[in-house]
Amino acid sequence: MSANTEQSIMDSEGAEPVPGAPLLEVKDLFVEFRTRDGVSKVLNGVSYHVEAGETLAVLGESGSGKSVTAQTIMGILDMPPGHIMGGSIKFHGEELLKASDKRRREVRGSGIAMIFQDALSALNPVFTVGFQIEEQLRLRKGMSRKDARARAIELLDLVKIPGAKRRVRQYPHEFSGGMRQRAMIAMSLALDPEMLIADEPTTALDVTVQAQIMDLLKELQVERNMGMILITHDLGVVAEVADRIAVMYAGRIVEQSDALSLYRKPGHPYTKGLLESLPRLDQRGQELMTIKGLPPSLLKIPTGCPFHPRCPMVQDVCKTDVPPQHRLMPGRMSACHFAEELISE
Amino acid sequence: MTDNILEVRDLVKHFPVKVGVLFKRTVGHVRAVDGVSFDLRRGETLGVVGESGCGKSTLAQVLMRLEPPTGGSAKFEGRDMFAMKGPELRKLRRDIQIVLQDPYTSLNPRMTVGDIIGEPFEIHPEVAPKGSRAKKVRELLDVVGLNPEHINRYPHQFSGGQRQRIGIARALALRPKVIVCDEPVSALDVSIQAQVMNLLGDLQSEFGLSYVFIAHDLSVVRHLSDRVAVMYLGKVVEIGTEQEIYEHPTHPYTQALLSAVPVPDPELRGQRQIIRLEGDVPSPVDPPSGCRFRTRCWKAQDICAEEEPALITRVAAHPSACHFAEEKSVVP
Fold first, then answer.
1. Is the entire prediction scored with pTM above 0.90?
2. ABC transporter domain: from which residue to which, for each copy (chain B) (predicted)?
3. Mean pLDDT for chain A overall
4. I need a surface site. Which of A5, A27, A89, A217 has the fewest CB within 10 A?
């Protein structure tokens, strides 16, 4: 909401895009939270990249750092308690972590936009949905009220909200859960971003509505050739939309792979455990396989491989040495000392 | 007959919608549960699935006698649950327990785990005399896979999965016959969810429990249930064994629901036939006439608006509430 108080920022020419650079490249990102209880190491060297038109799914359980990575990319991380300890985030080859606040604001919305899990708390309850979409158009694009309203109606139409003309004047509480998520997608698309970060976009929704929203996101992505980061814990959703997958555990990426190979043959014991612990729709299983224990506290990450206390394949080396990123094949990496064995099993 | 521990017939729960500040007028009713019938057999798990607002949690509250029903009846071991009072009601409250969804809000943050799990004994001292309570609580902690030494800890010192185990231990304390599980694993991460589901399965065989297992996740329900009831807007639209519902669904809503579940296998991408439903669930204050699903149904005809389809056996061996019930396999 700070955009209200700042003077209007028109679209200005950004830094020249570096040819050949990926749309977004995150490299060795380290973030910690300094809290009363100690230093919580939330991100410990996260690297991934996304190309235009591609969907990267970031998969992980609560506390794995998937949302913090996204917040750091967007520049909306709460600092303090958050501190960026190192790494780089490049958008079209331009370093965002060193960019001015003004430049970052320009990238936010028109370069990279984000949608959140809980659309009800992400929307402001005291303004109409239309006003919230129009606000960015007026401030950033310098549109008149009338033009902005017309564009807002177009955007609501685009995300298939029936009766957009009437809906644009309504407040968020008058929308159903699925409609709110659509409105938020419309809002994120207002400045035609090249990249969309969707943080658990369908977690709060019912399955039939989830299917509608995922269809819509896919359709919009293809139409606009957007890069997309889909943050989720749902292995089913990932299987349906992801081109590539990055699996996070305790602030690290433990496996990165194309979607097909990962489901066929997981290259990390954690991924394998996750897949095996899923109840299946197509069979009534007996005992589910489980991953023993709990995810570690980020205040005290285990030495060596952070997954070793829960790992069924643990060896002595795992307790002392942090596993490097093994390149298993082009585009496939695993941070496990025994990744090759796991793959060739 | 004696095999059914719970017999629910035409259960109705309406909540009045009131307007006005001082002189409240009732302007309508939320038909949260609107004529639900089912049997729960001894030792079995009945899964109840449906989307938000279909009435599955209200059903749980009525079965727990936390809310009085508007109509209908329910018999527990052959006796009318809603007519019970006095000592008989106290006994009923021991026999039916609940596990709630959110392990963060369902445990009192100011009570130790020992007090939380031991509290049922305060109300029903006949189950455990005073001296033996600490021992009982330790046993319960052990049964649900927690360290008995943690009896004096507070809920915030536990993770989500561990808290859900505390909730389960509390439900087990009085040795109930039926446990109503209202979305017990939906707040948990995948790896923890599997642990809690296994625990629920183990406890069932160990103590001979019967579960009413309410959830929106169809895979979770299939994994644990013997029979499944599918709810839509306060009504059961289809009920049958786990195999009948998942492999031979006949109601269009069941088919749409099943086909919308994302399957964790990228090789099936684009090959599965997915039935996309239009729009949202209508308001339970003013449900559509006739069949409640007709506004979103691709098979809807004039008869669907005029005549409400009964939940009866039609094309398959299990009951389905659709005029045009037709078997169709949608799960790969």
1. no
2. 6-258
3. 85
4. A5
Flag whether the ipTM exceeds 0.90: no
If pLDDT is split at 50, 70 and 90, which confidence band does B249 have? Answer: very high
Q: Please give the interface size between A and B, counted as residue pairs whose CB atoms are below 8 Å apart.
A: 129
Whole-number Å distance between alpha carbons of A275 and B185 = 17
Nearest CA in chain B to A180: B280
Chain B positions in Cβ-Cβ contact with residue A206 (cut-off 8 Å): 51-52, 216, 281
What is the mean predicted confidence (pLDDT) over B306-329? 88
B265, B272, B253: which is closest to B330 by C-alpha? Answer: B272
Alpha-carbon span A291 to B304, nearest angstrom: 48
| Cβ neighbours of B279 in A, within 8 Å | 162
pLDDT of residue A174 exceeding 70: yes
Going by pLDDT thresholds of 50, 70 and 90, the confidence category of residue A18 is low
Q: Where are the domains of chain A?
A: 19-117+193-280+288-344
Q: What counts of helices (H) and strands (E) characterise chain B?
A: 10, 12
Give CATH for domain A19-117+193-280+288-344: 3.40.50.300
pLDDT at A9: 40
Phi/psi for A257 (5° steps) reads -165, 165
B38, B8 Cβ separation under 8 angstroms: yes
- Residue-wise pLDDT for B194-221, tens only, equals 888 888 989 999 999 999 999 888 888 9
Q: What is the mean predicted confidence (pLDDT) over A210-227? A: 88
Q: What are the backbone dihedrals phi and psi of residue B204, each rounded to the nearest 5 degrees, phi first?
A: -60, -45
Are B96 and B180 in contact, with CB atoms under 8 Å apart? yes
Q: Do A278 and B269 touch (CB under 8 A)?
A: no
For B116, the token pair is 């939380």
| Rg over CA atoms, chain A | 21
The mean pLDDT value of chain B amounts to 88
In this prediction, residues B175-201 reach a mean pLDDT of: 88
Beta carbons of A208 and B257 less than 8 Å apart: yes
End-to-end Cα spacing for chain B: 37
The reply to whether residue A240 touches residue B243, judged by beta carbons under 8 angstroms, is no
Query: Would you call B263 an interface residue with chain A, using a CB distance cutoff of 8 Å?
Result: yes
In 3D, which of A237, A255, A218 has the Cα closest to residue A245? Answer: A255
Q: How confident is the model at residue A13 (pLDDT cuts 50, 70, 90)?
A: very low
Alpha carbon distances (Å) from A153 to A3, A16, A109, B32, B97: 22, 33, 18, 35, 50
Check residue B2 and give its pLDDT.
53
**CA-to-CA separations, A79 to A33, A76, B11, B143, B159, in angstroms, rounded:** 9, 9, 53, 44, 26
Shortest Cα–Cα distance, B259 to chain A (Å): 9
Distant-in-sequence, close-in-space partners of B4: CB < 8 Å, separation ≥ 6:
B39, B40, B41, B42, B75
| Nearest beta carbon to residue A280 from set B159, B161, B219 | B219
Number of helices (H), then strands (E), in chain A: 13, 12
Determine contact: B206 vs chain A, CB below 8 A: no
Judging contacts by C-beta atoms under 8 Å, the chain A residues touching residue B102 are none
CB nearest to A291's CB, from B191, B222, B277: B191
Nearest to B194 among A178, A236, A288 (CB): A288
Q: What secondary structure does DSSP assign to B18-46, as a single string?
A: EE-SSS-EEEEEEEEEEEEEEEEETT-EE
